[in-house]
Amino acid sequence: MNASGLHQLLGAYLLGGLEPAEAAAFDQHLAVCADCRLELDDVASIPALLDAVPVSDAVALTAAADGCLALGVAAGPPAVKPDASYSVAASSGLQFTVGLVKKTWGTELAVDGRSLPVDGTLSLWVKDRDGGEDRACAWTATPTGRVRITGATPVQLARIASVEMRDQRQQTVAVIAVPQG
Fold first, then answer.
1. Which top CATH class is 84-177?
2. What is the rounded radius of gyration, in angstroms, for the C-alpha atoms of the chain?
3. Which helix (H) or strand (E) holds 31?
4. What local confidence, expressed as pLDDT, does residue 109 receive?
């Protein structure tokens, strides 16, 4: 089965509705598909919520959720492959990945973070090779410490020296150095 077909099995996988061979194939797919891992993390609480619902209602909700998930996959925008992607992981558990996409007006930044600070405001800063900096985006910390957000900077990809995540005191939480080149 191709990756798109496997992605559509996410709901059934989450609810334990796959045959052993399908579940094994999906486990292998999860090992290489960051999008499916992120989506699985985003909906991981659904089984616990369904446990609180009477069985007849849970069956109807499961069918509806599975249909919505499949529709979202089919109707969603196509994924844009970044021109460059960099990650950092700290001993504290913090994980921060940024995908950089060249644009005529500058660079788009697709951010995925886990185990981030859970309070305050966080921001993403781009430093250029001449020492200048630009705030690409900011967001309120989430109680789960996870974020998927898109930002933008007028700095061209080739001119980016680093990407920094800062807390509300403007203290650097994580830095990704972008190699020249």
1. mainly beta
2. 19
3. helix 20-32
4. 95
